[in-house]
Amino acid sequence: MAVNAPVHGICRDCLSRASPGERRCKACGSPRVLRHEELGALSIAHIDCDAFYAAVEKRDDPSLRDKPVIIGGGKRGVVSTCCYIARINGVRSAMPMFKALEACPEAVVIKPDMEKYVRVGRQVREMMLALTPLVEPLSIDEAFLDLSGTERLHGAEPAFVLARFARQVEDEIGITVSVGLSYCKFLAKVASDFNKPRGFSVIGRDEALSFLAQQPVTIIWGVGKAFSATLANDGIRTIDQLQRLERADLMRRYGTMGDRLHRLSRGMDTRTVEPRGEAKSVSSETTFDKDIAAFEELVPVLRALSERVSARLKKAEIAGRTVVLKLKTADFRIRTRNRQLGDPTRLADRIFHTGLDMLKRETDGTRFRLLGIGVSDLTDVAKADPPDLVDRLSHKRALAEGAIDSLREKYGREAVETGYTFGRAKKARPQREDD
């Protein structure tokens, strides 16, 4: 992490250069002066928006500023995210909603508005791409950046550029980010988790081994609850214990994971920042307040979700060839079914009827807590939905759907409903949407 070495620093508030030994910025008086002996030599960053969904909601409603906010929905749902005030009270992401409200009964619960979050996330992403083309998104609100060789472009070292970026996001978008800076992706990701929110931590090469030695094994990617328990049973709880073991011994015990443990425990990570292309799938899903087994109750939900997916495909001017149905049973078992179409589609009607056929095969009395529909194998919209010589009514249905889209664009989504969803679409409000 950042240390107060006797080197020049950067004020993260006013971006002035701080002289060695200054505890506060002389220009603005801020104590947020960034220093590190390797500050000018590091260029791999991980940027993470702080409590992203909750931060966007607080930005849009200032009355929420000092209140605990949970983003989630329904008694059967889970916490998508929560603000730091709620976290102090014991609320955590992925926690069942009823437990979250037990921990923080005064919390304000807001259903996710994914369209808004995606829009803000894209704003942040565009600002990242202005720094470097080497941006590797991990999710809607975090990404790796490689700023190697950008000093001439920006007239400053990566650390200064990142500090300026963090302030710009705060000033222009109204949310905050935390930054991790290092020589590799693993340690950049680790660094960004320190000192949240509005953090900026640095881990250099010279300190990597000693820094890691003090950390628990769970800081390593892939070491979750189950595997950490396995390691604990073998007497391994901290990274310094891993550092004392040979690679061959670790691989003999844990296979390929043993090789990862060997490398990352020593700060060895050669992965490069890989810019990603467009989304590979578009989907929408919802968790029910009560488990549903009846086919006739699932149909309107499937239709509403299909319309949401279709709307996003049309907005992005893309289409998909494979329709994917997702179900989660009452005992949390996930069923995924997919069917490839003859031609790509972006029409709600085709998505729905394809999903409906798959859904019929699954409704055998099983009670479901979640239903989702999506499309994958995305392609350009020009290839989508050619005339069907067998199903001649498909062209009429496509025209009708276009007319509905026009009315909804003019008067709002609630202006027109199909017979499948009329008066019943409320159940289909998704708690999470995945690109």
TrEMBL record:
<feature type="site" description="Substrate discrimination">
    <location>
        <position position="53"/>
    </location>
</feature>
<keyword id="KW-0235">DNA replication</keyword>
<feature type="active site">
    <location>
        <position position="142"/>
    </location>
</feature>
<feature type="domain" description="UmuC">
    <location>
        <begin position="44"/>
        <end position="224"/>
    </location>
</feature>
<keyword id="KW-0808">Transferase</keyword>
<dbReference type="Pfam" id="PF11799">
    <property type="entry name" value="IMS_C"/>
</dbReference>
<comment type="subunit">
    <text>Monomer.</text>
</comment>
<feature type="binding site">
    <location>
        <position position="141"/>
    </location>
    <ligand>
        <name>Mg(2+)</name>
    </ligand>
</feature>
<keyword id="KW-0227">DNA damage</keyword>
<dbReference type="InterPro" id="IPR043502">
    <property type="entry name" value="DNA/RNA_pol_sf"/>
</dbReference>
<comment type="similarity">
    <text>Belongs to the DNA polymerase type-Y family.</text>
</comment>
<dbReference type="Pfam" id="PF00817">
    <property type="entry name" value="IMS"/>
</dbReference>
<dbReference type="InterPro" id="IPR043128">
    <property type="entry name" value="Rev_trsase/Diguanyl_cyclase"/>
</dbReference>
<keyword id="KW-0479">Metal-binding</keyword>
<dbReference type="InterPro" id="IPR050116">
    <property type="entry name" value="DNA_polymerase-Y"/>
</dbReference>
<feature type="binding site">
    <location>
        <position position="48"/>
    </location>
    <ligand>
        <name>Mg(2+)</name>
    </ligand>
</feature>
<keyword id="KW-0548">Nucleotidyltransferase</keyword>
<dbReference type="InterPro" id="IPR036775">
    <property type="entry name" value="DNA_pol_Y-fam_lit_finger_sf"/>
</dbReference>
<dbReference type="GO" id="GO:0003887">
    <property type="term" value="F:DNA-directed DNA polymerase activity"/>
</dbReference>
<dbReference type="InterPro" id="IPR017961">
    <property type="entry name" value="DNA_pol_Y-fam_little_finger"/>
</dbReference>
<keyword id="KW-0963">Cytoplasm</keyword>
<keyword id="KW-0238">DNA-binding</keyword>
<keyword id="KW-0460">Magnesium</keyword>
<protein>
    <recommendedName>
        <fullName>DNA polymerase IV</fullName>
        <ecNumber>2.7.7.7</ecNumber>
    </recommendedName>
</protein>
<keyword id="KW-0234">DNA repair</keyword>
<keyword id="KW-0239">DNA-directed DNA polymerase</keyword>
<dbReference type="InterPro" id="IPR022880">
    <property type="entry name" value="DNApol_IV"/>
</dbReference>
<dbReference type="InterPro" id="IPR001126">
    <property type="entry name" value="UmuC"/>
</dbReference>
<keyword id="KW-0515">Mutator protein</keyword>
<comment type="function">
    <text>Poorly processive, error-prone DNA polymerase involved in untargeted mutagenesis. Copies undamaged DNA at stalled replication forks, which arise in vivo from mismatched or misaligned primer ends. These misaligned primers can be extended by PolIV. Exhibits no 3'-5' exonuclease (proofreading) activity. May be involved in translesional synthesis, in conjunction with the beta clamp from PolIII.</text>
</comment>
